[in-house]
Amino acid sequence: MHSRNKTNLLKASVLSLSALFIAGNALAAGPYEQSVAIEKQINKDTKRAQASVDRFAEQAVDLNAEYKATLQLVDSLRIYNNQLEILIQSQEGEMASIEREMATIDATERGAVPLMNEMIASLDNFIQIDIPFKKDVRVDRVNKLKNYMIRADIPNSEKYRKILEAYQAEIGYGESISAYQDKIMDGTEEIQVEFLQVGRVALVYLTLDGKSAGFYNIEKKRYEELDDSYVRSIEQGIKMANKQATMNLIELPIPAAKRAE
Fold first, then answer.
1. Which end of the chain is more exposed for a tag (fewer CB within 10 A), N or C?
2. Does residue 170 form part of some domain?
3. What range defines the domain where residue 205 resides?
4. What is the average pLDDT across 91-118?
């Protein structure tokens, strides 16, 4: 009886020790797992923090590059603005110069218009008293000049150019020889003749049948007939003017030179 109780007491002690061991293991395992979990969480937080750091570092690099690019752009704009200021100053100077020139041009044009009208009037008067060769063409040219002067759509510079062209044409007539057809009055009848104009020295003609010749008498300001001895010379002169014969000496009725008064 006593032995059985002892055995039962021993079993109870073993069970108690086993329970304590299991409880001890349970208590020992809890902090370890917690430590492992905490370490894992720390690793995750560290990686997340590192990722944030890397992202911020990349952003910092991008911002630095953008900052440098901005500085370069600012420098370029500063240089460009300086160039624009120089250009604007130059243009302002040119505008001031143009304004001064325009004021001068206005004053010049105001004086040029009367001068141009006077030049046209002088040319018109000269044609009226000159040898009447190609008179219709020359008078028509002067009339066009008069019409130009009253037109507002033609600048004064163009009007002046046309006047100079007319003067140059008149100068050219004095150095030319030409042949052309026109009409003259024979009594009360108009007849068609072939004219030979030699500068401003002589204006002679042949009838189209080649039988009669005549000339413009500068002193008397009228056409007069010539004797038949001039017919051959005038024919030759017309051929030379039309480039149908080589230039040569011909006999023409030339008025004697007078001493200038």
1. C
2. no
3. 177-261
4. 78
Handedness of CA 147, 150, 151, 155 (dihedral sign): positive
Taking a C-beta distance cutoff of 8 angstroms, is the pair 180, 186 a contact? no
127 in a domain, yes or no? no
Give the per-residue pLDDT at 83.
81
In a domain, 222, yes or no: yes
In a domain, 194, yes or no: yes
Total domain count, the chain: 1
With the C-alpha atoms ordered 149, 153, 155, 158, is the resulting torsion angle positive or negative? Answer: negative
Alpha-carbon distance of 60 to 54, in angstroms, equals: 10
Confidence class for position 75, pLDDT limits 50, 70, 90: confident
Which DSSP string corresponds to 52-82?
HHHHHHHHHHHHHHHHHHHHHHHHHHHHHHH
Q: In what order do the strands lie in the sheet with 222-226?
A: 177-186, 189-198, 202-207, 213-217, 222-226
Residue 241 pLDDT exceeds 70: yes
Q: Which two tokens stand for residue 235?
A: 């024919």
Nearest C-alpha neighbor of 205 from the set 172, 180, 229: 180
- Whole-number percent of the chain with pLDDT over 90: 41
The CA distance from 121 to 163, in Å, is: 11
Residue among 113, 123, 115 nearest 167 (CA): 123
Give the single-character DSSP code of 256.
Answer: P
pLDDT, tens digit, 9 for 90 and up, residues 41-53: 777 777 777 877 7
Query: What is the rounded average pLDDT of the residues 183-205?
Result: 91
